[in-house]
């Protein structure tokens, strides 16, 4: 355990740290059981490719609206933990309803409801973890890496269960994992920072965030970089089979890919301390662009599996440092809001665009063309990261200075 936890039993700081890691483990286990395997469920109820693309592209619209709303609500009333408990339970139970649904209309409606509650989970969890890490002198990546472990285990284990028992098992796994995560959340402290000296209205807070150049540039970068990363979860299985892989190989690939994120999230702290947040993010984006462009050249499945660690460098580094960058470049009183907008732009708008374009490319060309597009849009996302690192906004404004302008 980190030094600040030495000598503490499970009922003390060590127990709270363990509970926070377990929260990430089970939240992402639920996501790992759901996202990579949902296409198996779609196929089992005979949805068309157009219907699958529509669900994948439109559902993020809910998060675009809901994530800032959840964030502003939490920042305004300082009830992050309560909201997270509610949304974990609600999204877990919403997942169970898929078991009895087989028509496109109902699947579409359920997915929108699920997205509404699910959209609050990651921004609020990250806000809690960032607050705890700052107070106890820890690296956020040391906590976040347990999410990568959970996602990797779920993609592999649930894949085996789906082969044995059918697609409905993924919804039971998803719900159970989120309910277990909620139980660990009860022991997680809410390290809210003192913000009574600075309270703003919801719309004013949103406006203040959008006046910060470094934050805006980072939103643009994440729109491109994370849009491709999230869309890959939907299209990778089709790509892998097109280059000669099997459905069983998809589960193994996700296990290795997502599993590689954990050690690199741990390593991200070393890179940040030596070279800074900006260069770490830039390295991650460059590796991501190279990966997608390489995929578009139709490599063999053997090489795709052998180079699994590229995901650790690109996705692991980016996710471990992105939330920390947002925290250090926005006012403390708008932390959850800033994270929510970040996730809604990258995970919502960016993913929606990438899925829409990917669907059109697949119908017109091939899945290899999809990855060429992913590579190009990630290269575009590198430009604002270069401006953040070397441009006129390379130094972050002090937090008190940021607040004083409001």
Description:
It comes from Brevibacillus agri. This is MFS metabolite transporter. With 406 residues, the chain is mainly α. The chain has one domain (12-190, 205-404): Growth Hormone, Chain: A (Up-down Bundle). The chain contains 17 helices and no strands. α3 (49-77) packs antiparallel against α15, α4 packs antiparallel against α5 (104-118) and α12 runs antiparallel to α14. The protein is globular and about 50 Å long.
Q: Which structural traits does this protein have?
A:
79% helix; 17 helices; mainly alpha; Growth Hormone, Chain: A; 406 residues
Measured between the Cα atoms of the first and last residue, the distance is 40 Å
**Given the C-alpha coordinates, what overall shape results?**
globular
- N-to-C order of helices and strands: HHHHHHHHHHHHHHHHH
Q: Report the total helices.
A: 17
The CATH architecture can be named as Up-down Bundle
Largest sheet: none
Q: Helix coverage percent of residues?
A: over 70%
Q: Class by helix and strand content?
A: mainly alpha
> How many beta-strand elements?
0
Keywords: Cell membrane, Membrane, Transmembrane, Transmembrane helix, Transport
Organism: Brevibacillus agri
GO molecular function, one term: uridine transmembrane transporter activity
Protein name: MFS metabolite transporter
